[in-house]
TrEMBL record:
Species, as recorded: Stylosanthes scabra
Chain positions covered by the region annotation Disordered: 27-50
InterPro entries: H3K4_H4K5_MeTrfase, SET_dom, SET_dom_sf
Protein name: Histone-lysine N-methyltransferase atxr4
Ranges of compositional bias, category Polar residues: 27-38
Residue ranges annotated for the SET domain, each copy included: 46-306
């Protein structure tokens, strides 16, 4: 299907806005081999465009032939959060593994570098001023991971380092009334966490007064609905996998998850059970999108959201339950 020009332009403008207001959190770079001469310092835009597909909403298309194994682009998370069981062994900001935890007893989180610490402090300051006991306890008891990302985003918004609408461009999940009720309960705990302690802090109170009112119940539910469909579980591949060409993300032998993250551009990649691209993480939450095979100009780039080695019924069940769609990729259509 041809993409309408007005749609492309509207999307391009939205993406441009996203880039400008969140440069710190959303950057992409093209493969370095394609920069040369005077443009060396200015990375070329990635060889892709976002457009409409026939049957899967928006998708990512190659704007030139892309070779197997080529790094298509990288992406920094819009928001990420470490898995609770590795809180003391990964960087609280970028999710890099750290062998010697440098978190103090009081702080209980660690950073891999001064740079990560500095970036994180922009919003971690706000986080530490609130009382998260009830919120954290609720999430742990109910084995919920995504609300921790909303908690971080809320702190980023209050601190002024992220906009409250920074995930609005992403597709939201359809929510049942049961899901909404639970989110409302979580939201109450989030509000209380801030209410309990922030008022006494002048510095935070200042940010709170200008940024907190946008963090409504609708905001919380909207963000979670987007995280639900677009969050990636991050498993760091060892360095030697950097040049691995032939395995889909789900089949890369990786260590256990270090956390979850949401990105902007990578969220536009649709799913295929026989994908031509994959997303990998080498050192930290920075995502690398790579071509798994030669891709023609104009071809849609798709990644695999799940374990591609599962049988058709299991894949369909997972995709329907987790993402709310019926996969009609060639593999599924041929019953493979
Ligand atoms: C991460 S988003 C991908 C981008 C999305 N198409 C959009 O417009 O923002 C995932 C959603 O895209 C759609 N999708 C992705 N892969 C699909 C597929 N193979 N078949 C049908 N829908 C698909 C589903 O609605 C799914 O919930």
């Amino acid at each position: 299907m041809r993409v309408s020009l007005s749609h492309s332009l509207r999307l391009a403008s939205l993406l441009t806005k996203q880039k400008t207001f969140r440069l710190h959190h959303f950057t992409t770079t093209a493969t370095p081999e394609h920069s040369s001469g005077s443009t060396r310092d200015r990375p070329e835009p990635p060889p892709i465009r976002v457009g409409l597909t026939d049957s899967a909403g928006r998708g990512v298309f190659a704007t030139r032939p892309i070779g197997a194994g080529e790094l298509i682009h990288t992406a920094k998370p819009a928001v990420c959060y470490p898995s609770l069981n590795v809180l003391d062994t990964v960087c609280y900001y970028c999710l890099r593994r750290i062998s010697n935890s440098n978190g103090s007893e009081a702080q209980r989180v660690s950073f891999c570098s001064e740079d990560c610490k500095r970036r994180c402090m922009e919003f971690y300051d706000v986080e530490t001023k609130a009382d998260w006991a009830a919120f954290d306890d609720y999430c742990r008891t109910h084995d919920l991971k995504y609300p921790f990302m909303v908690k971080r985003l809320a702190c980023m918004v209050i601190s002024g380092v992220a906009r409250s609408d920074s995930l609005d461009i992403l597709q939201p999940a359809n929510l049942t009334s049961q899901m909404i009720s639970r989110m409302e309960e979580e939201y109450g705990l989030l509000r209380n966490a801030f209410r309990k302690t922030l008022i006494s802090d002048e510095h935070v109170a200042y940010y709170l007064s200008s940024n907190f009112q946008v963090l409504t119940k609708q905001w919380y539910i909207g963000v979670l609905a987007r995280i639900r469909i677009n969050a990636f579980r991050i498993e760091l591949a060892a360095g030697l996998y950097e040049d691995l060409l032939s395995s889909a993300a789900a089949s890369v032998e990786a260590e256990a998850a270090v956390g979850h993250a949401v990105y902007i551009l990578p969220s536009f990649y649709n799913h295929d059970c026989d994908p031509n691209a994959h997303i990998i993480w080498i050192d930290n939450a920075d995502a690398k999108l790579k071509a798994l095979r030669d891709v023609d100009e104009g071809e849609e780039l798709r990644i695999c959201y799940i374990d591609a080695s599962l049988d058709r019924d299991a894949r369909q069940e997972l995709l329907s339950r987790g993402f709310g769609f019926q996969c009609n990729c060639n593999r599924c259509l041929h019953g493979d």
